[in-house]
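#structure-requests
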Amino acid sequence: MKLHARNLNPVVTVDGTAARPVLLRVAGLVLAMSAREARALADELHDAAEGLDR
């Protein structure tokens, strides 16, 4: 199975009362993460995208 970006609409929200307050909704799934996890994911995504620009 392969999901294409044009089929996805990622949405990021915050639930300040949750233990893992950063929520990433993609294709009907909700991924909950801490602020540290969210920053680590953002760094990994940025590094991967930056590698494509070379």
